[in-house]
């Protein structure tokens, strides 16, 4: 079923790279590759695929294209979920361990983005933010006699809107901007929209354990966690975007990188401040739900 | 290419056949069965004429049989074949109704509204089903919805138990009891549904399908556990 397709996919990725490097090399593959001169025997072997779509896909891969079906077919979307458990785990690992020189898109994704990771990481992050925030509010107010536990379910809706907007609009903006600059300056090819979305989705993974750790009621720990998460996640983003941006004018390059980092910082700080409010704020809201509630947060933060 | 070669070779061979004229009747071999509707046959398969009580009882029996299957989950293809969505609807409405009547000021800071529970359960089931299909699963759309919906049953039972426990008081002991009950039933739900769903996935993607199911029942379990009655 799906597994022969997977092997085909990856096999052809490597084959294309090798062929580009050395066009005269002899290839030993199961399909009839037309661009090489094999020893005659492998030339006419038919692809033993269960459907014709596999044939089309692999021959188009050699030409560097990925999708053959239109966007109204189911197979089009299936191509974005063409990942195994191990691949997803590797990508998650790659997003929390940024090494200099390791471009997330080229190295970890190997230019085959998927939508499984970004989508489920965002969903998990939404619920982990809402649930952890609820828990932290509860734990902070345990001593107070006026406190009556509230599930605060509306936070799920707010978290969902914020996270999903960030995960889709920011990559759209960055990709649009980079593509426009690339056309203007005629530079090397940038990243496709899906690769950018995939990158941003995986970069949000670090916030899941961070949001759980934010339950611990130490202010210094919470800010330290924000810093650590920002550094890791931000450097994944910067390391990936830097090669594309550095050929541009200095101002644009630094401005782009700075914007990426600032937006990321705003997201994490905003989430922390909204979902993980300190004890004094909730006490005030239960006692005097009017204007004093607005003044006190500025004092405590 | 091989196929093309064969075609090339065969063309001149069969080309001559076009000169053959077909005259008269050529006896057609094989049998053509035209089903002649006998009245007795129709009565057996048609359910239009039976009393309403029979129809309802038959559907209820089917729903009940599936509930039993969820209680003792073992792989059975008949359960998947005869899917229905009555059970999930019943469970969803029951759960959503029981999650109401929470804290008094339920507009803000309260528990989930009826619509929110409904949306989470149905939308969540649809998304998990789509996810499973996109990853290459062989289970059909409605079969998967059916399984996910029926496996909410342990959580609904836990909700009933929690409300009963809350009648006795909402201290730490009742919280611990509720925590144990909800954890047990959420694990049961996840286990029961993966017993049906995981088999339809290739082995290298099973975890990718099981994780969203786990998350789904975890969120529902969370909604049940955090239900706090009005002060």
Word description of this protein:
The complex is a heterodimer of chains A (301) and B (231). With 301 residues, chain A is an all-alpha fold. In chain A, 66% of the residues lie in helices and 0% in strands. Chain A contains 13 helices and no strands. The termini of chain A are far apart. Mean pLDDT of chain A is 72; it is low at 29-65, 279-294 and 296-301. Chain B is built from ten helices and no strands. By secondary structure, chain B is mostly helical. The mean pLDDT of chain B is 78. In chain B, 65% of the residues lie in helices and 0% in strands. Chain B starts with a helix and ends in a 6-residue tail after the last helix. Chains A and B meet through helix 1, helix 3, helix 4 and helix 6 of A and helix 6 and helix 10 of B. Chain A: Keywords: Membrane, Transmembrane, Transmembrane helix. Chain A: Residues 23-64 are annotated as: Disordered. Chain A: It comes from Oncorhynchus kisutch (Coho salmon). Chain A: This is Protein YIPF. Chain A: Belongs to the YIP1 family. Chain B: Belongs to the YIP1 family.
Structure in a nutshell:
The complex is a heterodimer of chains A (301) and B (231). With 301 residues, chain A is mostly helical.
Rg over CA atoms of chain B: 28 Å
Largest sheet of chain B: none
The oligomeric state is heterodimer
Total helical segments of chain A? 13
Distance between the termini of chain B: 78 Å
Mean pLDDT of chain A: 72
Shape descriptor of chain B reads elongated
Number of helices of chain B: 10
What overall geometry of chain A do the principal axes of the alpha carbons give? globular
Structural class estimated from helices and strands of chain A: mainly alpha
The average pLDDT score of chain B comes to: 78
Order of helices and strands of chain B: HHHHHHHHHH
The profile of the biggest β sheet of chain A is: none
Estimated radius of gyration of chain A: 24 Å
Keywords (chain A): Membrane, Transmembrane, Transmembrane helix
InterPro entries (chain A): Yip1_dom, Yip5/YIPF1/YIPF2
Biased composition (Acidic residues) (chain A): 50-59
Region (Disordered) (chain A): 23-64
